[in-house]
Specification:
4 copies of one chain form a homotetramer. Chain A is an alpha/beta fold and 281 residues long. Chain A is 37% helix and 21% strand. The longest helix of chain A has 14 residues, at 145-158. Chain A starts with 5 loop residues before the first helix and ends in a 5-residue tail after the last strand. Chain A binds chain B through residues 88-89, 92-93, 156, 160-163, 194-199, 205-207, 210, 224-225, 234-235, 239, 242-245, 265-271, and chain B through 88-89, 92-93, 156, 160-163, 194-199, 205-207, 210, 224-225, 234-235, 239, 242-245, 265-271.
Chain lengths: 281, 281, 281, 281
C-alpha cells in the first residue's frame, strides 16, 4: 500500500507542513535522509513549516534543537507550536494579572514574552489567589506531580478562571518502546475532576493548521490545495490535515509502523491521501 | 451581573458574529428589538455575520427564513453555516464518486452544488457500495431512523470512507420547553458503534470561526480584537469565540436563562467578556 | 493458543454459565456440536445456566427459542436474562404507578408480571405524566425511533424518575456480517442528552453474575471456583466473569474469530483462563 | 424535602449499611450524634456494616480509626472495603507470581495476606517483568507520581496482565473545602493511555453491595427489603444501593449539602428513598 516516492509527491506542492517527532527526528537523532529533503525543498522553492504539539519551550529553542542535529534549514520562523497558540490566547484574552502554570521555568519564560506575569503552581499560596487570572498547562516536567496537580485542582475549585492546555498529546516517546505521560493526559484528568471546560491547543485542532496557514500567507499567496501535511500519526496529523482541507501524507517512521498501517487506517477510518516509507527524498 | 447595555458594547467593534437561535429568533419569531439592532449596525457601519450549526439547508434558504420574519438585513452572504464547511470539505477532499447522506433532500441539494452526486442512505443498496466515497450526516429529518441509521452502520463496517458530521449540536429546541435530537447526537452514537473517527463541523470548533473570519477579510481588513461573538450558549458560542481569540458576549434570551447565568458560568468555567439581557439595542 | 479440548476443561467444574449468541447459536441455528455438550453435562451431573443480555421477551420465550432449535435441555429455569434483573428492580424499587417503556408489547408483557402497569412511550401524552414512575428501555424494536426517542427525552426533562436499561449491549448480529443497534446504544445517547444517571443491567456487570449464582445456590451448594463462564465476547462475558471471580473460557465461534483472538486479548488486556475453538465437546 | 427523623426510618430495617466519610466521620472527627445511633442499633438488634471505597489499609486498621475516635461498635468484622474485594480477586484469579502495586507499604501488606508477593512499582525493574502477574492500584500515596505512574504505563505496554483498581473514587476530602486526587482518577488516566480494560472495585458497583450482603447472610437471614443504605453521595452510595435493590437514605452531612440536595437529585436523576439531615438518631 506504499504510494509512489516522496519526492515525486512533494514536488506537486508549494508548501509542506511537517510534524516533528517521528517524521523528522526521533530519540536516535534525525530520520535518515531528511537533510536531503530540505535541500530538495530549497532548490525547488517549496516552502515548509514544522507543526508541533510542544509547549515546553519557545520556537527559538525548538529550532535550536533541529540545528544542533544538523538541520540548519529549520529556523525559528519555521516553527509552529501549540505553545505559540497558547501564548497568543493569553496575550489577547487574559491581558492582565498573573498566570499560574504547570511546567518548567523555561516553558513559562516564553509565555512571559506576551507581557504577562507567571507563577509556578508550586510557589502559589491558595490563600492569595485573587490576582490569578488563568491557569496554563505547559509541560509534564518542572513540578511535583503529587503536590502541584492537587494544588491546581483546589485552585480551580476556589476561583473561576480560564484553563489553557498548551499540548493536547497524551504521551510522548522517550526511547525505543518507552513512552511518558504528556501534559495533555494530566489536563484530561484534572478537567474530569473539576468538571470545567478547558481550552486546548494543538493538532488535530483546526486552529493549529489555520495558524500555520496564516504564517504561510504572510510570505506567499498559496491555495490550500497546494499544501501537504506530512505526519506519522493518524489521529493528530492526518485527521487534522484532512479536516482543514489540505492533502495529507502518512510516513511510517514513527507512530504508525509499516506492518500496522493498513490496520490502523481501517480501524480508525482516517485515510491519508498518500503513504510513504519516510520523508526522505 | 448584567454588563452595561448592548448598544454601548457593540459600538466598540467593527464586526459582530451572531448565533441564530436563542439570539436573533426562537420558536415565537424574532427576539424583540433585534430589528433595531441591525438598523443600528448599518448606520454605524458595523458589519455582521450569522454563525449557525445548521446543515439542513443552504445559506440562501437560511437567509430566506430571516427575511420572512422581517429581518431583511440578513442576506445569503451574511450566513456562515456548518453545512457550508461540510460542503467545502466534500468538494476539496472527496472530489469524485457518490456521497451517501442522512438528511432531507433539501439538505443534500446544497451538497450537490459542490459538484458531487448524493444518494440518500434509504436508496442505497449495501450490495453496491464501491462508488460511495463518503458519508455525510446532515439532518435528523428526512429518513427512517431505524432502517437508515442501521444501514449507515453496516455501510461503514463494509467500506472505509470519511464520515462528515455537518452539525455537531446534540439537540435543538422545537417549542417552549421541548427539544429534539439533532444529527450531532446520532453521529456520536454511530461513531461509538463503528469506532471510527468522524470529521465534525460547527461551533465551538475553531474552523467555523475561522471560516467566518475569512469571509470578513474579503470585504474589510479587521483585527480579531475588533470582532465580537454574541451567543446564548456557553459551550458553543462563548468557548468557541474565546478560544478563537475574539471577545464574547452572552445574551440571556436562549439556552442560558437570567437566573441560571451565574451557575452555568461558574460550573462550566466558560467566562464571557460581557453579559447582556438580549441583543436588542 | 488454543487450550486443550473443551470436554476436558468443563469436566473440572460443577456449573457452567453459557453466553447464548455466538456460543450456543447464531443466525444459522445451533453452533455445531452443542447438543452433545448438553448431553455430556447431563450425564456428568454438571449444571448450567444461559446468561443473556436480552430483555426483548421473558425467560419462557427465550427458552422456547432454544427448544425450537432442538436444544431441549434449556428450559425456562435455565435462563438468566438482563430483563429479569430489570423486572426485579421495578418490582422492588418502583412498586406502584405506571412504567413507560421503549420496546415491543412482548417485552413489556414480562415486566407486567411484576404487578406494574406499563405504557408504551408511543401512547403516552406528555400532558399527563404524573403517574409515570419509571422509564424502562427494553428493546430496539416496537416503536417509532424518531417520535418515541424524542418523546422519551422530553419526558425525562419534565419529570425526575429512575430510568432502567434492560440490555446494555450496543449492537447485535442480524446475519453474517450485519449488525443492528441494540437498545443499549440508544440509552447511551439519551443519557448523554438528559445528563441523568441511568440504571443498567446486563453483562459485564457483576449483578448479572451474582443473580445467576443465587440461582445456582437454590439447588446446590457450589463454590465460585467450581463455576466456569463460557463466552465469545471479551468485553462482556470474559471480563465480567473474571471480575466476579469465576474461571472464564473464550470460544471462537462468535465475536472473537480465531485469527483475531490474540490481537483482541493483547489490545484489551482481558485474559480468559482458557480458549477453545467452540463449546462442542 | 427532609423526611421524618432518622430513628423512625432506621427502626423499620434489620440491617443498615453506612458509608464512612461524610456520614459517620469527617476531617473534624465523628459526625455529632452518631455514637448514640450505634447504641440505638445495638439496643434494637439492628445489624450494620460500613461500606467504604478505601484500599489504603486493611479492615483492621480501618476499624482502629473509628475506635480511636470513640466509635467502639465498629470492629474489624463490620468493615466492608473495596480493598477486600481487590484482595479476593487477586487471591482467586491471579493465584501466583508477584503483584506490582501503586500505593503505600501498608496498603500492600493487606494484599499479602492473600498469599501473594507484592512489589512496589518503584522497586520494579522493567528489564525483569516476567514474574509480574498483575498490577493493583491501591492508594494515591506512597510513591513518586512522576516516576512510578510512567513506569506503570510502560509495564502495561510490555506485558499483558490484569489491572485491578481497588478504589474507584476520583477524589477525597482532606480538609474543609479541600480535596485530593484519589487513585481512581489516576487509574482512569492510565487506562485511557494504555487502552486496556481495568477491573474496578468499589461503590456504586453491585459487587461491593453483594459482598456486604454475603457477610450479612453469614450471621442472619435477611431479605434485601430489610436493608437500608445510608450515604452522603448520590453517585456512589445511593445509585449503587438503588440498583442493588435495597432502600436508600441520603444524609446531608457530606458531599450533598442541605441547600444543594434538590438540585443534585433533579440534575442527576438519582432518587433516594429518604433524606435526613444526618445519621444521628
Amino acid at each position: 500500500m506504499i504510494s509512489a516516492n516522496f519526492k515525486e509527491i512533494v514536488s506537486q506542492y508549494e508548501v509542506v507542513f511537517f510534524d516533528s517527532y517521528g517524521v523528522l527526528r526521533d530519540y536516535d537523532g534525525l530520520v535518515p535522509g531528511v537533510q536531503q529533503t530540505f535541500e530538495y525543498l530549497h532548490k525547488n522553492d517549496i516552502d515548509f513549516y514544522v507543526l508541533t504539539n510542544d509547549a515546553s519551550r519557545g520556537p527559538k529553542e525548538l529550532a535550536n534543537k533541529f540545528q544542533s542535529l544538523g538541520l540548519e534549514a529549520i529556523s525559528r520562523s519555521k516553527i509552529i507550536s501549540s505553545g505559540m497558540l497558547a501564548r497568543d490566547y493569553l496575550k489577547y484574552k487574559v491581558k492582565d494579572g498573573t498566570v499560574a502554570f504547570l511546567g518548567t521555568a523555561e516553558s513559562a519564560h516564553y509565555i512571559e514574552t506576551a507581557g504577562l506575569k507567571t507563577l509556578p503552581i508550586g510557589e502559589l499560596s491558595l490563600k492569595q489567589i485573587d490576582h490569578i487570572n488563568a491557569l496554563v498547562m505547559l509541560d509534564d516536567e518542572g513540578y511535583d506531580w503529587y503536590k502541584d496537580i492537587n494544588k491546581a485542582i483546589n485552585l480551580l475549585r476556589m476561583r473561576n478562571m480560564p484553563v489553557i492546555v498548551a499540548n493536547t498529546d497524551l504521551t510522548y516517546p522517550v526511547s525505543r518502546g518507552k513512552i511518558a505521560l504528556a501534559v495533555g493526559a494530566i489536563s484530561d484528568m484534572v478537567e474530569e475532576i473539576v468538571r470545567k471546560n478547558f481550552i486546548r491547543f494543538g493538532k488535530p485542532d483546526a486552529q493549529m493548521f489555520n495558524f500555520a496557514y496564516e504564517h504561510v500567507l504572510k510570505t506567499r499567496m498559496v491555495d490550500k490545495d497546494k499544501i501537504l501535511m506530512v505526519g506519522d500519526t493518524l489521529k493528530t496529523d492526518i485527521i487534522g490535515g484532512n479536516k482543514f482541507g489540505i492533502d495529507t501524507l502518512l510516513v511510517l517512521t514513527g507512530n504508525t509502523p509499516p506492518d500496522k498501517a493498513r490496520l490502523f487506517i481501517d480501524s480508525s477510518g482516517i485515510i491519508p491521501d498518500y503513504i510513504c516509507e519516510s520523508a526522505a527524498v
